[in-house]
């Protein structure tokens, strides 16, 4: 059997391409399989990256695919019994009528608030932690395939990109959920310095201004 004399991990000598694989030892097969898996992973990762960095805007078919794969569970806060029939949420999920709950202090879960306040707070808390998909309106065309940014991108001025967004942007969109940034000290908290975002309402392209 012809042997490649170059060094390999564990002093392994891998067979040359011309060697008969039927005569390989166990160590040669192990490393060959590992190398093959690594190459397959690199190839698949490249494919995913190419798909995620596609610069075109998602069309209705793309958004329908997102909605199908990630069904929305956002609960619409109904003010009264007719609210959801007047403005039916896309996913059909509607809360109980807030106005139908008691506004009396002490009627809440812990006795320190009202049942109406508790329900409204719970609905708001769910929205704060919800990860919005593109089909739910999350993100925007920042440019170069990105939908979120913590730095203003006045340099991305192609059609529909950050600098030419309608309405005009001063920052972001920063993240797909509120608590992606507001998590210091627990959910709904502040954010650490590394999570700071920046504004550029004048589109100067200069973060210092």
How do you describe this structure in short?
This protein is mainly α and 209 residues long.
Quote the distance from N terminus to C terminus: 69 Å
Beta strand count: 0
In the predicted model, the low-confidence regions spanning at least 5 consecutive residues are 1-18, 29-54
Question: Can you give the mean pLDDT?
Answer: 75
Q: Provide the succession of SSEs.
A: HHHH
Provide the β-strand percentage band: under 5%
Shape: globular
| Structural class label | mainly alpha
Please report the number of helical segments.
4
Largest sheet: none
**How many whole angstroms does the radius of gyration measure?**
27 Å
How much helix is in the residues? 25-40%
Topology:
Blueprint: H1 26-52, H2 60-69, H3 83-86, H4 115-129
């Amino acid at each position: 059997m012809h042997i490649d004399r170059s060094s390999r991990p564990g002093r392994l000598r891998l067979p040359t391409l011309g060697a008969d694989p039927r005569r390989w030892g166990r160590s040669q097969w192990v490393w060959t399989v590992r190398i093959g898996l690594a190459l397959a992973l690199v190839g698949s990762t490249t494919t995913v990256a190419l798909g995620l960095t596609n610069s075109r805007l998602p069309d209705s078919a793309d958004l329908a695919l997102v909605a199908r794969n990630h069904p929305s569970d956002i609960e619409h806060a109904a003010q009264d019994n007719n609210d959801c029939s007047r403005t039916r949420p896309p996913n059909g999920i509607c809360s109980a009528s807030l106005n139908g709950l008691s506004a009396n202090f002490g009627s809440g879960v812990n006795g320190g608030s009202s049942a109406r306040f508790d329900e409204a707070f719970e609905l708001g808390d769910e929205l704060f932690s919800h990860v919005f998909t593109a089909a739910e309106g999350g993100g925007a065309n920042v440019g170069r395939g990105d939908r979120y940014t913590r730095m203003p991108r006045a340099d991305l001025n192609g059609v529909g990109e950050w600098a030419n967004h309608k309405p005009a942007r001063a920052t972001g969109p920063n993240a797909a959920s509120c608590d992606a940034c507001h998590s210091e000290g627990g959910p709904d908290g502040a954010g650490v310095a590394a999570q700071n975002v920046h504004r550029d309402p004048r589109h100067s392209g200069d973060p210092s201004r």
